Amino acid sequence: MANLLNDPVIQSSVAPFFAALIVGGAMLPLRLAGLGVAAGFLATVYLVGNFAFSPLTAMRKIVVLGMGAALIGVLAGLAFRPTRSTGLVLGAIFGAASIWVFWSVLAQKPVPEALLYGVGTAALVVWLVAFTVSLHADPVRAGAAGLALGLGSGVAAVLGASALIGQYGLGLGAACGAFLLLVMILGRRVAAGTVLTLTASVLGALLGAGALLLAQLPWTSLAALASIPVLVRLPLGANSPAWVQAIVASIYGLAGAGAACFFAWLASRSSAG
Predict the structure, then answer these.
(1) In terms of pLDDT, which residue wins out, 86 or 135?
(2) pLDDT tens-place string over residues 14-29
(3) Which of 13, 5, 7, 10 is nearest to 147 (CA)?
(4) Which pTM does this prediction carry?
């Protein structure tokens, strides 16, 4: 069993998928099925063996901020109905917090370069959070966006030679895949809410930014990731069943994820040559 749990495939796909499925299913009556995404991601963190807070590295700060996003998402979903400005406000908050996450990395760069990366990272977080949180009432598109953000950042990071970020991203994608499966089976009775959209967007953005800063992921890959919450808004077919809409929305989102991976692959070939 120990050898099985040490298998990277189990850690970044099977375990987060079933953790998200179980927790998401249990939270259905409370309309908090999106909390399963946080549970699935934490399952990956735990199995990878990075569930610690000292020293507080950039990767561990990503975990802290992701769990903070889940908590805020739950509170926001229970306390008030999100408005059009909710995503932008939350994006600004987490965009500023992203500077704290990567401060140790940015501090080692020349000031102009640090400013470029700092502003770029914050802008990515603001964009992804604002546009993904606005999908809170649409579980099909929200789940598809989370799936694509997780898989796109994960595979792109692996291509950029960062195994840890890759596992985290793939774990996030698997957890969102479990949520999407619930939507495919139960339809729109499964609520995404702020908890799923905020957790998935914050983690997806920070993992993408982490791959940029720590694994030399190209800016073009981040631009492709940023397109995902826009792509999933393409038409799904209003009269189609939820499972068909989920597949179509996932294809849209995965097109952006695939582009991110393609640019990462081109960059890795260029650096190897």
Answers:
(1) 135
(2) 999 999 999 999 999 9
(3) 13
(4) 0.94
Contact 200, 145 (CB under 8 A): yes
pLDDT averaged over every residue in the chain: 91
Find, among 128, 126, 134, 121, the residue nearest to 85 by Cα: 134
The Cα 43–Cα 49 span in angstroms is: 10
The range of the structural domain enclosing residue 266 comes to 2-272
**Alpha-carbon distances, residue 145 vs 43, 190, 207, 245 (angstroms):** 20, 16, 15, 13
96 alpha-carbon distance from chain centroid: 18
- CB 130, CB 87: distance < 8 Å: yes
pLDDT at residue 175 in the model: 97
Residue with tokens 């963190």: 45
The total of structural domains in the chain comes to: 1
Token pair recorded at residue 40: 């699935």
Over residues 29-45, the pLDDT tens digits come to 988 999 999 999 999 99
C-alpha–C-alpha distance, residues 269 and 151, integer Å? 20
Measured distance CA(84)–CA(192) in Å, rounded:
16
Q: What angle do CA 254, 217, 197 make, to 5 degrees?
A: 45
